[in-house]
Every structure is written in C-alpha cells, then in structure tokens.
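User: Design a sequence. Structure:
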C-alpha cells in the first residue's frame, strides 16, 4: 500500500498528465469525450487521495491517450496508400 506522502507527491503529477491527455483529445475536436473525461478526473482529484483516485486518473489518462491514437489514425492516410504500383 502506498503511503499518503507518496500519493501527495504522485497524484498532482498524474492529474496534470491526465488533463494534458484530455486537452489533446479536445484539440482534435472530440470535445464531448474530453469533457466527460475531464469531469471524471476533476471529481476523482477533488475527493480522497487514495488508490481509487490513482486508478481513476490513470484510467482517464489511458482512455484519453487511446482516443487520441484512434483519432490520429483515422485522419492520417495509410502509409503508401497514395502510391501506385
């Protein structure tokens, strides 16, 4: 079990990373998804700083990053797709 002092050090960094990932999602135009994830992160961060909060922030960050990856792939052409053989 992680001590309170470790959580007090780690959670602000994780919160910032989660919000940065959510912001990137918003910049890609997925504002509704970004808003839901941002609200979830804010709610978790405003409650008890415990392992549940850590898991929620990690989940928010992971979902935002995954959505960014999917969105990035959906707007980029497949490499070599424009080449004629």
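Assistant: Done.
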């Amino acid at each position: 079990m992680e001590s309170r002092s470790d959580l007090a050090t780690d959670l602000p960094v994780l919160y910032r990373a989660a919000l940065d990932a959510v912001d990137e999602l918003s910049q890609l135009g997925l504002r509704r998804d970004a808003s839901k994830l941002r609200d979830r992160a804010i709610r978790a961060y405003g409650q008890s700083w415990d392992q549940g909060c850590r898991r929620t922030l990690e989940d928010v960050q992971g979902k935002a990053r995954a959505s960014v990856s999917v969105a990035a792939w959906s707007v980029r052409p497949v490499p070599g797709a424009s080449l004629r053989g």
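Helices lie at 4-27, 31-45, 51-75. Residues 81-85 have pLDDT under 50 and may be disordered.
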